[in-house]
Design goal:
Elements: H1 2-25, E1 31-36, E2 42-47, H2 50-53, H3 59-75, E3 85-90, E4 96-101, H4 103-108, H5 112-121, E5 126-132, E6 137-143, H6 148-154, H7 158-167, E7 176-182, E8 185-188, E9 198-210, E10 213-225, E11 233-249, E12 252-269, E13 278-289, E14 298-308, E15 311-321, E16 324-334
Parallel strand pairs: 1-7, 3-5
Antiparallel strand pairs: 1-2, 2-6, 3-4, 5-6, 7-8, 9-10, 9-16, 10-11, 11-12, 12-13, 13-14, 14-15, 15-16
Signal peptide: 1-21
Keywords: Signal
């Protein structure tokens, strides 16, 4: 029995830990200050948090270096024509390197995700990026044509970042802060926050290891997901589970014993990219059986729960005292 429990513990960790690691490493969420200039021309300043971007002081100086180096490259004939894509790297030692993708090379590449973003945001064809490597900040210029480089070069970015700073804690609830350049500076163009609470119901089938006994499980789960705060989501839920314990002897089932468990739980979701619907959390409730199993008729139960898309894994414990516990492991597949 101890070997079975150890195996199920290792299986639960093996199933959930790689998905946890994948959730945290696949894509690091970053915030954006989006500045619309004239027409479709725009600037995106991307960093780890809006509050750090609000105090970022190198935007205008690096912009000046970039357009100065770009003009020098055009004047000395380094580029046969105005490139559509330019990368500009600034190292911690202050070294600068400009790398351009010639239009034929740029046109030969195809990135579906990038093209979708361009369509959704109505981005113009020219794309120039400054990479501030020591500060981990990127400044993206999306411009309609070469004439728009003068507009981008003469637009001061620090007043836009100061506008974000004035928002204070309000900006912490956003991942993108939108501004539009006007004749009097920059105006806030942020939409109202989404405060919708969602309700979800699922039904599922699966199996349970109740101590050393295997049992089928049928479950009904109800979730209430709160409005997301940045990239972190929270939800609360309740789960009703029915199961059946029995002994299989001489080709037939004997000693049928039905049971139920009712649990409430809290879960959080770090990943919001849509690549994996991964939730992790804690649960607590009670479990009971019609006939005696050596436990009380109704026992307090608590444990860990991980939901990966339509699959749910849980490891629960019934404290017995004297540093002993009764373990339950459950797998469910939601079909409703």
């Amino acid at each position: 029995m101890k070997n079975i429990k150890l195996f199920m513990c290792l299986a639960f960790i093996a199933l959930t830990f790689p998905l946890w690691a994948q959730t945290n490493t696949e894509q690091n969420p970053q915030d954006t200050v989006l500045i619309r200039l004239q027409g479709r021309n725009q600037v995106h300043i991307i960093g780890k948090r809006l509050r750090t971007l609000a105090t970022y002081e190198r935007a205008d100086s690096l912009k000046a270096y970039f357009f100065s180096d770009l003009n020098k490259s055009l004047q000395n004939g380094s580029f046969p024509e105005m490139p559509k894509r330019i990368h500009y790297f600034v190292s911690q030692q202050g070294k600068r390197r400009l790398k351009a993708e010639i239009n034929e090379e740029f046109a030969a590449k195809f990135d579906l995700g990038y093209e979708k973003t361009r369509m959704n945001l109505d981005l113009p064809p020219l794309h120039y990026t400054i990479y501030d490597l020591p500060e981990n900040v990127e400044i993206h210029f999306f411009l309609e044509d070469s004439a728009a480089t003068e507009l981008a070069a003469t637009t001061m970015l620090s007043p836009a970042l100061q506008a974000v700073k004035k928002e204070g804690k309000k900006a912490n609830l956003l991942s993108t802060y939108r501004l539009e350049k006007t004749g009097f500076g920059f105006e806030n163009r942020n939409p109202k926050k989404n405060k919708v609470i969602t309700l979800e119901f699922n039904g599922g089938l699966g199996g349970m290891l109740f101590g050393s006994q295997l049992s089928p499980v049928i479950s009904y789960d109800l979730y209430i997901t709160l409005p997301s705060r940045r990239f972190l989501k929270h939800r609360f839920g309740a789960s009703y589970n029915g199961f059946l314990l029995t002994d299989f002897k001489e080709g037939k089932f004997e000693n049928l014993n039905t049971g139920t468990s009712l649990k409430g739980y809290y879960q959080f979701k770090i990943n919001s990219t849509g690549q994996h619907d991964s939730w992790f959390g804690l649960s607590a409730g009670y479990v009971g059986t019609d006939k005696s199993t050596g436990l009380k008729r109704n026992e307090f139960i608590w444990g860990l729960i991980s939901t990966q898309g339509r699959n749910s894994f849980s490891a629960d414990m019934i404290p017995l005292g004297n540093k002993e516990a009764f373990l339950l492991f459950t797998y469910k597949r939601f079909i409703l």
